[in-house]
């Protein structure tokens, strides 16, 4: 796959739609073969490839750094966990899976409430939705849950007096991710895996027509 022709917006869109349930890459693969990029275009291509291929590893690294920095602040740890959950709702697959499990659980106690939490019906024209599909969580647009979660996280961080410390830990984790994505050379396995996932995505879109 030619990552030079892939825009940053396309990478963000792919990270939002791709499955995040895949297991992280092994440590031996994650910490092998480092080298400086030879040009700016090579750096951008490598950065986009690694962010997509090692997405699960980077997410775990982010949570680990935040947890390690906030180990003495229970409220801040809870805020970090709530932030991670809120950001996870931005992924289509996670939001849809969470929504289905919540509705199934609530159905055991109140079938009427579970029916109300179902997403509204979207009109379909020639096999495709008339408008861009909106992801719902418990009957509400997922952005509502993201904003509520981030607001609650901010309150927990502010209460624990660790807001600046959280920002410092978060910035450190982002710099570590950026450094790794910059120096880790994309291997053949990463390229083949990208081709395979790209084919699956195209095939899934074709089957929905």
UniProtKB/TrEMBL annotation:
Keywords: Membrane, Transmembrane, Transmembrane helix, Transport. This is PRA1 family protein. May be involved in both secretory and endocytic intracellular trafficking in the endosomal/prevacuolar compartments. The chain crosses the membrane at residues 52-71, 77-98, 142-159, 165-183. It is a multi-pass membrane protein. Belongs to the PRA1 family. It is found in: Endomembrane system; Membrane. The gene is LOC104748136. The keyword Transcription regulation does not apply. Pfam families: PRA1.
